Amino acid sequence: MKKLPSLSATSWLTTKTVFSQVFAILLFAIQAPVLGPRAFGLISIVLVFVGFCELVLGEASAEALISIREIDDAHFDTMNTVICALSLVFGLLVFFGAHVAARLFGDPEFVPLLHWMAILPVVSAMGSVPQAATKRAMEFQPLALRSILSLVVGGVVGLILTLSHYGAWALAWQALVTRLVSTVVLWMAIPLKFRFGFSRSRLTDLAKFALPTLLSRLMSWATAQFPRLVFGLYWGPTELGLFGLASRLCDILVEVGLMPRYVVARLELRRFASDPAGLADALCEALSNTTVILFPLCIGGAAVAPTLFHAWLDARWVGGIVPAEMLILMCAPFVTHFLAGAALLAMNFQAAEAMISIAQTLLTLAVVFVFGPFGINIATAAFAARPLLLMPLPIMLLKKKCAISPSKLLRAQRPAFIAACTMGVVVTGLRVGLEPMLSSVILLPILMMVGAAIYASMIAVMLPQMTARYLKASPFSRPR
């Protein structure tokens, strides 16, 4: 049997993420014209309720298992028992609260959807321990492979049900099958055995790391999911589906351009625990490498968003263009937030990282309640401004906790920002000028090629050493 290629941790994460997002886009390209915004709005609200365990309890348990220095099997068994028990309780609450949710949103379809989706918290929780074990060992190959396989299986199921006109149920079963396959495959791919156990001393060890992270992830969940809940009450499923599409485009950029670097940095930066200068240099290098990729995707993506919508989707989705532009731009300041959080967690400043999440959540709640009644465009503009308004907080915490200069952090991001903004202005002007003359299908690749050429040229001049490293690493530069 041919052995899989040996790739770095970042490469495996990037491979998994790129495949996941490309596959999701292709799947959505087929599903969106058939299902329409309402189906996506319905399932978005359902996932607010059932995604709590995956995004809060699962992440907190994984963070605790990664952070603890001396670990044994009893730690894994104890965490597996606790996380599954809590998820079971939460799943029962979702099941028996289905009728309340249906009355709240005025849609009886929520009842059967929530009844079936109530199993999802337990399924997701069972994958938390092996996921933490592989991350702790820096073995990202099993994570990448199980993610790819589960997405393909779940996507095929969702696509078949979509083309069979099952509506929102296609998306519900797609989510269920994806999580189930992911959990089963991951347990099969690692040496850990699935078992339950409990140790009070091990739980005490884990709680020291889990509780601050639990608060942080609770705030992150509220920041990401609570707006969908409230906006759904204000606008209804259709406009929520438009907002969900805009959010999905933002999520794609974060997952592809930011999350692989964040996950690896959170682990790699631990080796600088006694080297503040090395930590500052490593963090700035991570910022520079990340912004070179993410900034052009954000600013260029916003510039071509109108053309993309017209080339890709039908008239039902046009109302999502402006929200998409704003949420895509929101990804740029996320670089500072995410990598600052990675550095704080790597140095075991979980409480400081939780402080950032609390501030984000409080501002999100204020934005949702104040601006939600004014409609999707105004509310999305206020929502997209949050990470920019809060950027001073992680910068100040890094200075206080890790002695990293704010100016050094900003200098690391400056070249990519200037090049991306220049490219965005040129592409926007070109789009406005050519739209009356060319169809969107023809115009879109032209804009992308022009933008890529402008940005690459500027980066080659402003960051010649980084450009040389990328060219040297390119397979086209190696002799055959």
Walkthrough of the structure:
This protein is mostly helical. The chain folds into two domains: 1-198, no CATH class; 234-463, no CATH class. Helix content is 83%, strand content 0%. The chain has helices at residues 9-50, 52-67, 73-96, 98-105, 110-117, 120-125, 128-136, 140-163, 168-189, 200-235, 237-257, 259-268, 276-312, 321-346, 350-371, 376-384, 386-389, 392-402, 406-434, 440-462, 464-473. Helix 3 packs antiparallel against helix 5 (110-117), helix 11 crosses helix 14 (321-346) and helix 13 (276-312) runs antiparallel to helix 14. The radius of gyration is 22 Å and the shape is globular. It starts with 8 loop residues before the first helix and ends in a 7-residue tail after the last helix.
Question: How would the blueprint of this fold be written?
Answer:
Layout: H1 9-50, H2 52-67, H3 73-96, H4 98-105, H5 110-117, H6 120-125, H7 128-136, H8 140-163, H9 168-189, H10 200-235, H11 237-257, H12 259-268, H13 276-312, H14 321-346, H15 350-371, H16 376-384, H17 386-389, H18 392-402, H19 406-434, H20 440-462, H21 464-473
Helix pairs in contact: 1-5, 1-8, 1-9, 1-10, 1-11, 1-12, 2-3, 2-7, 2-10, 3-5, 3-10, 4-5, 8-9, 10-11, 10-15, 11-13, 11-14, 12-14, 13-14, 13-19, 13-20, 14-15, 14-16, 14-18, 15-16, 19-20, 20-21
